[in-house]
């Protein structure tokens, strides 16, 4: 597996992969904006095919913190170390850039994601709540 930085030129390929992830509702334009707004993308390639990616950003207001914005792995490649390898890249980039914390949001009903993050050293620190109001 090769882990490589992705550029805005690969946004279309990232978009196609993100559409296979039910938790993602981003448009191609949203992805391109993420590239332009400082988010970094790392792709996981197997046999020159993009099988996963991670998007993260170093926060300006919280100088020691990185936001893990999204991680996506094709269904056929899950539970094969791809997501763990992508997380390791983010951890190494945080070390290199003197970022001590990685934060992320996860659906509390997504047990597989919760278990994955816990296995990789993340701890639950808060719950966010939302109320949708009919207009």
In short:
This protein is α+β, with helices and mostly antiparallel strands and 135 residues long. The chain is 31% helix and 25% strand. Strand 4, helix 3 and strand 5 form a beta-alpha-beta unit.
User: What is the number of helices?
Assistant: 4
Low-confidence stretches: none
Give the number of domains: 1
Strand order of the largest sheet: 1-2-3-4-5
Structural class: alpha+beta
Helical percent range? 25-40%
CATH architecture: 3-Layer(aba) Sandwich
**Biggest sheet character:** 5 strands, mixed
Kindly provide the radius of gyration, computed on alpha-carbon positions and rounded to a whole number of angstroms. Answer: 15 Å
Reported by name, the CATH topology is Aminopeptidase
Secondary-structure map with pairings?
Layout: E1 2-6, H1 11-19, H2 28-36, E2 40-46, E3 49-58, E4 65-73, H3 82-96, E5 101-103, H4 111-119
Parallel strand pairs: 4-5
Antiparallel strand pairs: 1-2, 2-3, 3-4
